[in-house]
From TrEMBL:
Protein name as annotated: Homoserine kinase
Family: Belongs to the pseudomonas-type ThrB family.
Any one biological process term the GO annotation gives: threonine biosynthetic process
Gene Ontology MF annotations: homoserine kinase activity
Domain Aminoglycoside phosphotransferase: 25-247
Species the sequence originates in: Neptunicoccus cionae
Keywords from the UniProt entry: Kinase, Transferase
Keyword Glycoprotein: no
Length: 315
């Protein structure tokens, strides 16, 4: 499927496109661009989701990570030297195309030749991303969504006021409000490892190519708690039959590259569960959203209840 706007956009880059095909349409629209020499991903960003400054910051960060040797899509500058191009007010960028298959898909059990090794490697990749980000000198004007206390449980969280999801029962609303207060108190105590994170390392955003892992979709990346990075992946493998083994492998892989205190990991798993309860509210018109909303609420209810009842030691 071709697209007239995408055809206009690709002309902003010095590439000889022989094919521009729409291959994905989720948060962003992604086109596969084929040239005689290479294949690229042309992204059209969802209108109104990110500012031009936020997207330019994302691309600058990705470029720095590529330079540091991480495996991720490399931003390609347009003919005018800018990585972000505006075409009829639509935001476009061009990235290198990476080979491989998704690590998995939402709601489908993982199918990996060596899952323990893969998650150990993923933990290492996370740690390397954090180390490279810490070593990078953030440029003036850099702005990205913040996954700090305000961004997770403040008055205007990044993914919405989960405790006000209109489908919550009175008991669920009370539960989430109690959790929010307890989580706020815990986050205010002591120091927490903080810096740039991907913030959405789900199985769909990890490509596996032989032994190599590629990290994609930095849409939500920004300053945040490093444990939130680990929690995002761990929360979404809870239903796997070997989840404890995968979690241990992920943490061991991370700690083989970078030290991290995991005392409050259960809190961040609960926080991640709650973000989805807020996220789905603005997407209820999508196919399957009603069922996913119920699932998100049930998952978060279970995790938050466990965290509160255990005194914060497990979920």
């Amino acid at each position: 499927m071709t697209d007239a706007l995408a055809q206009l956009a690709i002309a902003r880059w010095d590439v000889d496109a022989t094919s521009v095909e729409l291959v994905a349409e989720r948060e962003n629209r992604v086109f596969r661009v084929i040239t005689p020499d290479a294949t690229y991903a042309l992204r059209q960003h969802r209108s109104g989701y990110r500012t031009d400054a936020q997207l330019s910051s994302e691309l600058a960060w990705m470029k720095s990570l590529d330079t540091a040797g991480l495996s991720l899509p490399r931003p390609i500058a347009g003919s005018d030297g800018a990585h972000l191009q505006l075409v009829n007010e639509a935001q476009f960028d061009l990235l290198t195309w990476l080979s491989g298959r998704q690590l998995g898909a939402f709601g489908t059990p993982l199918d990996l030749d060596d899952p323990e090794r893969t998650f150990h490697d993923l933990g290492q990749a996370m740690a390397r991303l954090h180390k490279a980000s810490d070593a990078w000198t953030v440029p003036a004007g850099f702005t990205r969504p913040r996954w700090d206390a305000d961004g997770l449980i403040g008055e205007t969280p990044q993914w919405g006021r989960f405790w006000e999801n209109p489908t919550l029962t009175p008991d669920q609303k009370t539960l989430f409000e109690t959790f929010r207060a307890e989580a706020t108190a815990t986050l205010s105590e002591g120091q927490h490892d903080f810096g740039l994170i991907h913030a959405d390392l789900l199985r769909e955003n990890i490509l596996i190519d032989g032994r190599d892992l590629h990290l994609i979709d930095f849409d939500d990346g920004g300053p945040g708690y490093r444990l939130f990075e680990l929690a995002t992946t761990i929360f979404r493998i809870r239903e796997e039959t070997n989840a404890p083994v995968l979690q241990s492998a992920l943490i061991e892989g991370y700690q083989s590259e970078r030290t991290i205190n995991i005392t409050h990991l259960p809190l961040f798993i609960a926080l991640r569960a709650c973000t989805y309860v807020g996220w789905i509210v603005t997407r209820m018109e999508l196919q399957g959203a009603q069922e996913r909303n119920k699932q998100h609420i049930n998952n978060a209810t279970q995790v938050v209840t466990n965290w509160l009842n255990s005194g914060g030691t497990h979920v």
